[in-house]
Specification:
Elements lengths: L1 H30 L4 E7 H5 L4 H4 L6 E12 L2 E26 L4 E24 L4 E13 L2 E8 L3 E3 L1
Antiparallel strand pairs: 1-2, 2-3, 3-4, 3-5, 5-6, 5-7
């Protein structure tokens, strides 16, 4: 009898462990919609994908970077992005480029730069009027300069459709 309870308990635990990632994935997919898209990266996440010699380097200034596009209504989108550094820098900026899919490539419609001085963080937000019936995305550049040290990275959101 005791062995039966142990087996049943083990089966329940295995079922719970197997289903946790599935439940988490469905929660994330429910939160995402075709009216917004975002990209968030950290230097830690990228270290596993780059040369180990570079991963040990202390030459990085940028720690995290983020960009987002969101439909406000059928004729407007909101662009948002930020850059966070590991320490205060002489200048930190985020550049947001609104891009539209032409059917064969991405065309940049506008570029918006936000800059901070003597800080470790910079952010910006911009509302832009767009034409309906197209796919849009944000391409972002994140830059930091501290003395002679310069760091830059980029990110892209997924495309969203504006009615």
């Amino acid at each position: 009898m005791r062995k039966t309870y142990s087996v049943i308990l083990l089966i329940i635990v295995i079922f719970i462990v197997i289903n946790i990632p599935v439940m988490a994935a469905s929660e994330v997919s429910n939160q995402l919609s075709d009216t917004n898209a975002a990209a968030h990266h950290t230097r830690q996440d990228l270290k596993s994908q780059i040369n180990p010699e570079e991963a040990k380097s202390d030459d990085y200034l940028i720690q995290q970077w983020y960009c987002e596009i969101r439909v406000i209504n059928s004729g407007q989108v909101s662009l948002y992005g930020w850059t966070r550094c590991v320490r205060d820098c002489d200048s930190v900026d985020v550049e947001l480029q609104l891009q539209r899919w032409t059917g064969s490539s991405w065309t940049t419609l506008g570029t918006y730069v936000f800059r901070g001085f003597y800080t470790d963080y910079c952010w910006g937000i911009r509302t832009v009027s767009v034409s309906g019936g197209h796919y849009y995305r944000v391409k972002s550049y994140h830059r930091a300069r501290d003395g002679s040290l310069y760091d830059q990275t980029t990110a892209y959101t997924q495309a969203i459709y504006v009615n």
